[in-house]
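Entry 14. Structure prediction run on the chain below.
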Amino acid sequence: VAIFSLPETQVGLENIDPAMLSLFNENTTFIGFISLIAWGLGYFGQPHILSRFMAIASPDDIPVSRRIAMSWMLLALLGALATGIAGSLYFAAEPLSNPETVFIHLAHAAFNPWIGGLLIAAILSAIMSTIDSQLLVCSSVVTEDFYKKWLRPQAQSKELMLVGRIGVLAIAVIAGIVALNPDSSVLGLVSYAW
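Output returned:
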């Protein structure tokens, strides 16, 4: 049973350009390919991921944690791929002006407003979770790795807490300014940050 039906101009998978799933095209350079592959390898070096690894209570918990994390990542990546393919089919006749909003538009098209609202709230909760992790990690870097190490090694915890709070505020303002660019894409910003 289909969740939603395709528009009048039905398009099947055979009509979708297979090059969309290819890592290689005429613009792919060797350095570009290595950069794309490095995204997956660099995942484990990200500060917000490392803090999760450091929070593991015992080395004996690592195999279970690894299985849970990799299962979730596989599920998330398959879901992203399925969303992209469904969006390519559903919006083939009238492509979206911003393809990064495909999940929002599919949620609107496929579900009643209550379920669609919950799905969009899930997007917002994922965004908020990522933002707070990134802000806290950046604040910690400013406080511990820069301020305490280079400027004031004798700083007390109260002073470090104030510097951390100012760091969170400053980083949030900078991120807000960067996000104001209407020509930027989420993928472009993430690739720049990566």
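Residues 83 and 103 are 7 Å apart (CA to CA).
Filed with the rest of this week's runs.
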